[in-house]
TrEMBL record, chain A:
Signal peptide: none annotated. It comes from the Eukaryota. Its EC number is 3.5.4.5. Residues 41-153, 198-312 form the CMP/dCMP-type deaminase domain. This is cytidine deaminase. The active site is at 97 (proton donor). SUPFAM superfamilies: Cytidine deaminase-like. GO terms for biological process: pyrimidine nucleoside catabolic process. It comes from Zea mays.
From TrEMBL, chain B:
This is cytidine deaminase. NCBIfam families: cyt_deam_dimer, LSD1, PRK09027.1. Keywords: Hydrolase, Metal-binding, Zinc. The lineage of its organism: Eukaryota, Viridiplantae, Streptophyta, Embryophyta, Tracheophyta. One of its GO terms (cellular component) is cytosol. It is an enzyme of class 3 (hydrolase). Substrate binds at residues 86-88. It comes from Zea mays (Maize). Pfam families: dCMP_cyt_deam_1, dCMP_cyt_deam_2. The keyword Hydrolase applies. Binds 1 zinc ion. The gene is LOC100283606.
Length: 312, 316
C-alpha cells in the first residue's frame, strides 16, 4: 500500500476540531472553513469535521458513534452518521458511510473524492461504496488511527477492499450507478391508494420522485418512501441497492437519512408516511416499512401507492 | 500481497480426474469421507479437494431473484467439509438474503466445528461476507480460493482473509477478548419464560424446545438479545438456528435465516415447505425479531402456524 500518503501535519490552529452547522456544506463555505482552520485544502479539512459529525450519531443500541465527512467533485462537503433503531433487527441500522452517500446523492453530487471517517470502515461499507463509479479511487482517512498510535493517512478504497465484487460483476457498463442520474419508469399507478389530503398528496409526490431516482438495477424494483414531521415538512428517499444485496439501503432508511440531514428530529417524530413501489414486487418494502413504523413511530399514518410497470 | 498467496497445486497429469468437479451428496462431509474423496479425485489434500466441490455446491443455491448461484465449500479443523450456498427470498427486501459464506459458517457452527481453515468459493467474496467472517477467531488466517478466477484468466490461488479485508473492523473493536466468538461454545442464560405462549401440541413443544436451544447457542454479544427460531416441515422434521451477530451489525444473520439454512442443509427443502415455526426471544428486546419473522413467513410460507415464546432475563 505504498501509494498511501500521510495526511499533512496540521498547523497549531488546525489541531482542533471544526464544528459542522449542518449535513451539507457548500463549496465556498468549505473553502472558507479550510482557510480559517489553517489547512491547505478542503480535503485536509475533512478530518477536523469528523468529531462534530460523530456528535450527531444516533446509536441507542451500541452507543458506538461513527461520523464520516466526504468531499464531492463539486467542492461540497457531506456528513454522515450511524443510525440505529430500537426494537428492530440490526439489519435496519444505517452506517455513517451509507448516510454520507445517500446525503450526497440527494444533493445531486456527481462524484465523491475523499471521505474521512472516525473508525475503520467495515466490510459492509467498503462493499456499499462499490456502487459508485470509480469507487476504487475514493480516498479514505481514519481519524481514530491517531489514538491508536498511527499517523492517519489517505489511502485508496481499492487498498481496503482488494479484488472487489461489485456492479461490474452483474451489470452492463452503461447502467447508471449511485450518484448518476436515474429516471426509473414507474409505469401506471394502480388504484389502491388515494391521497386524501394535501399532506397525503405531497407525501405521495415525494415518494414517487424518490422511487424514480432510486438505484435498483439488481431487483428492478425501485421504491421510494416519504415521511412528514409534525410541522408538515416532508423528507424522502429511494432505495440504493448493492450488488451484494444485503448492504442495500432501503427506502425507509433513505427517507430517515433525509430527515436527519435536513435537521429534523429522530424517526419517532414521523407523523405520516407514504411508500411508492411496484405492484407484487419481487423485492417488496411494504411489510418492512410497516414494522419499521410500528417500532419507531407507531402513531404515524401510512399509505402505500403501487405502480404497474409499462411493460407488465 | 505476494506473501499471502500460494498458488493452488497443479494436479498431476495422471490425475486427470482432478480436473473435473466432484459431486456432493450433502452439506456436510465427514473427515474420512473427505479424505477418501480427495484420494479418489487424485488430489494430495482435502484442502485441494474443496475447489472441485464448488460446482456441485452451486447447483444447490436458491436464487429466484438474481439467478446468480454462489457456492462455497470449507474445511474445518476437524477435517470435516462444509458447504454453503446463497439463498434469496421473493417478496422481501434484499437484506433477507443469505450469502454462501454465511450459510457455510452457520452450517459449520451447527455441526460444532471449532475452526475453519480454508474456503473455496465460486465468486470473489463481497465485503459483507469478508466482514461476516471476522466473527470467527483467527479469521485473518483463513485461506480463500476463488474458483471463477480460472475463467477470468487468473490462476486460482489460496490467499488469506487478511489480504482481502485489510485493517478490518471486527469483534476486537467492541468486545473483551474473552467473549466467545462464532464457532466457540455459547450458553446464553435466557432467564425465565414469560407466560405469553403455551405449546399446544407435541409439535409445538418440540419447536419451542429447538428454538430455545438455538437461542442458548446464538451469537449475540453486541445486542445481548439472543434469539432462536425453529421450523417444521410437513413430515414433522424440525430445523433450528440462532442469530449470528456481526460487529458491523448489518451483516448479522437472523435466527429465521439460520433455521432455513439448517433446513436446506438437512435435505435441500425450501423455505416454502415450512408448516409451523417458533421464535424464542427476550421480552421487549432492543433488537427484536418477532415482526420480521412474521413478514418472512407471510412472504414465503403464508400458511405456516407461528408461536412466539418470550423470556425475561434473570437480571431484569
Amino acid at each position: 500500500m505504498g501509494e498511501e500518503r500521510a495526511a499533512p501535519k496540521p498547523g497549531p490552529a488546525a489541531a482542533t476540531a471544526v464544528e459542522l452547522t449542518g449535513f451539507v456544506m457548500g463549496a465556498e463555505e468549505a473553502e472558507r472553513a479550510a482557510a480559517a482552520a489553517g489547512v491547505a485544502t478542503v480535503q485536509d479539512l475533512l478530518p477536523l469535521l469528523v468529531p462534530s459529525a460523530m456528535e450527531r450519531a444516533r446509536a441507542p443500541i451500541s452507543r458506538f458513534r461513527v461520523g464520516a465527512v466526504g468531499l464531492g467533485a463539486s467542492g461540497r462537503v457531506y456528513a454522515g452518521v450511524n443510525l440505529e433503531f430500537r426494537g428492530l433487527p440490526l439489519c435496519h441500522s444505517v452506517h455513517a458511510e451509507q448516510f454520507l452517500v445517500a446525503n450526497a446523492a440527494a444533493a445531486g453530487e456527481p462524484a465523491l473524492r475523499a471521505v474521512a471517517v472516525s473508525h475503520m470502515p467495515c466490510g459492509h461499507c467498503r462493499q456499499f461504496l462499490q456502487e459508485m463509479r470509480g469507487a476504487a479511487a475514493v480516498q479514505i482517512l481514519v481519524t481514530s488511527d491517531a489514538a491508536e498510535g498511527r499517523a492517519p493517512e489517505w489511502r485508496a478504497l481499492a487498498s481496503l477492499l482488494p479484488r472487489p465484487f461489485g456492479p461490474r460483476d452483474l451489470l452492463p457498463e452503461d447502467v447508471a450507478l449511485v450518484l448518476e442520474p436515474h429516471g426509473n419508469d414507474l409505469g401506471g399507478p394502480v388504484a389502491n391508494g388515494f391521497a386524501r389530503g394535501d399532506l397525503d398528496a405531497r407525501l405521495r409526490e415525494a415518494a414517487e420522485a424518490a422511487a424514480r431516482a432510486a438505484h435498483a438495477p439488481y431487483s428492478k424494483c425501485p421504491s421510494g418512501f416519504a415521511v412528514a414531521d409534525g410541522d408538515g415538512r416532508i423528507y424522502a428517499g429511494g432505495c440504493i441497492e448493492s450488488a451484494a444485496y444485503n448492504p442495500t439501503l432501503g427506502p425507509v432508511q433513505a427517507a430517515i437519512i433525509g430527515m436527519v440531514a435536513a435537521g429534523g428530529g429522530p424517526a419517532g417524530d414521523v407523523v405520516a408516511a407514504a411508500l411508492v413501489e411496484k405492484e407484487r414486487a419481487e423485492v417488496a418494502q411494504e411489510a418492512t416499512a410497516r414494522i419499521f413504523l410500528e417500532a419507531v413511530a407507531p402513531r404515524a399514518t401510512f399509505h402505500v401507492y403501487n405502480y404497474r410497470p409499462s411493460d407488465a
